User: Fold Ion transporter from Paenibacillus glucanolyticus.
Amino acid sequence: MSWWMWLLNLTGLLLLIYFFYSMDKKWSSRPLLLAPLLIYALVSVEDLLGWIDLMKIVPGEGGMRALILLFALCSVIFYVLYIFDKIADSVHQHVDMKTTLVRISMAAGMCILFFTLVYMSIYKLFGGVSFEGVNIGQDLLSQFITFLYFSMATFVTVGYGDVAAVDNTSRLVVVLEIAFSFITVAYALSMLGTLRRIFKPGGDGSEMLDGGEESKKANMPHRRKHSSM
Assistant:
């Protein structure tokens, strides 16, 4: 890749960082959810159009697989931190439960789309050695629908078996999405009320136990003291 393409990509990345930072401070943090999606999509499009050759940037096919896994891991960490940050904000800024649920749902939706693009790029780069399935598709639209369906099925941990990850790279990406699904659905959403109390200033969740003990004491029958004659 020539020096001017490096400069163009670096400038574009800095502009994206500045844009998302400005949107977060001045308007809303919701556009921040698009950051991993846009960065991955732009780099993939550049590689698809031949503007850059990722295989020459990283050391061979193994380096490319490691780069995809590293970016997917960083993106999952980003979305998880975003979710817990919004849960904390819902306490400190007195945001209602409905708004918090909308923010968590948006983060989950963006992550599903992000993994859709990751699966598509893996399939494009490594072909049938990464995914096997019935009628995956030859054109981009068909493949997008197929991997969107696969990403949604993975997120809700429902495997139909018509599309399957068959190599270590694709399987590890599936593991990352399942882990994100567990943290989002089985932990953040199901324990949202408890987490809000934990993030409350001075609250560590012990007040729930104290309240339970007090209610038990209040419900215990009082014994009469019999005086001995």
Q: What stands out?
A: The longest strand covers residues 131-133. Residues 30-199 form one domain. The radius of gyration is 24 Å. The CA atoms of residues 76 and 178 lie 10 Å apart.
